[in-house]
């Protein structure tokens, strides 16, 4: 019978890797607490309309990458392709707009699904960490969100990063930019891919983000958003740069960044690593001041980012980051005989209930094999139990690091290991 394997573009997290996830999740939670952000969890599935309206029906995500199906009630359902739209839906549905502003929200280890060619750091099912700050318009908010991402990466030991920022304008200055872009692109329509030809009238800026080589060549000399910013957007972008300067954060103004989602307005950014090849973007985000209104709420300024956790792990490994070791077993009870095995079992449970990591033999191994297994577990101490030890009520506790032994009363073992 053929072995069943995980679907293409998905990946198991096995025990030898999961402690790395625990480490970065812990660092993310601690940093979010420092910044005053609270966790919000949203479902894996949402109504397809949420992403068509929020992400944009001319984006690659909606047009090419979503996992969409009809449920038994005839409703169109989509596996979550990104985190922000669901967060905004939850913000509105749970009336979080009645809470004090700004609302600082984060999601962590959130499963995200996109149908695309699996490659380094990019899977069809991956997991994201993200921050959303809702209700604050100031440039300081933009800078704070960016600095949170940079601080996290620094805490995790990631170097060789470059911060790229751009201004893509509001709804008003975007009109002038789109007109200039259409004028430039009008002579190349026949050379574009079919998808970009369909975007020409409705959303020409998406053509800038196309990954097709022919289209990328066409847009090399196209107008850039930063040259068409209105006075308010120019001022906001300059203030963002001033805030980053004040915090000592280095950055590159990159007019090619437009991000692949339609809800972005104003500031956009990417943090790029030189360590993992072409797919080097570790984190990306920006402002989305119109998204909440688009999804039925009142106009509400917002700023956030998303960070793929698998890609983050790949960058950390490429940087040679040393992860903390997984927790080790404190004591292993090796037992020989029926009564000693029962006592080892009882002692193991007693110590665990008191907060001490303990193990004993589940496999009916020989005495010698039990000690070998204790070594593989990395047990700090071993205790040998036989009929003689039970009769005397005492055992020898062996320190595995230096081989020293200490005789301890069985009734005092818990106190001994609790120190």
Question: How is this structure best described in words?
Answer:
The protein is an alpha+beta fold. Helix content is 39%, strand content 21%. It has 2 domains: 15-170 and 230-318, Bira Bifunctional Protein, Domain 2 (BirA Bifunctional Protein, domain 2), CATH 3.30.930; 331-418, Rossmann fold, CATH 3.40.50.800. The chain is built from 16 helices and 16 strands. Strand 15 (394-399) and strand 16 (405-409) form a beta hairpin. The model has no long low-confidence stretch (mean pLDDT 93).
List keywords for this structure.
419 residues, BirA Bifunctional Protein, domain 2, Rossmann fold, eight-stranded mixed β-sheet, five-stranded mixed β-sheet
Q: What percent strand?
A: 15-25%
- Number of DSSP strands? 16
By helix and strand content, what is the structural category?
alpha+beta
Report the end-to-end length measured between terminal Cα atoms: 53 Å
**Number of continuous helical runs:** 16
Low-confidence regions: none
Helix share bin: 25-40%
CATH superfamily of the largest domain: Bira Bifunctional Protein, Domain 2
- What integer value in Å does the Rg equal? 28 Å
Q: What is the C-level CATH assignment of the largest domain? A: Alpha Beta
Shape: elongated
Question: Strand order, biggest sheet?
Answer: 1-5-6-11-10-9-7-8
Largest sheet: 8 strands, mixed
How many distinct folded domains?
2
**What is the architecture of the largest domain at the second tier of CATH?**
2-Layer Sandwich
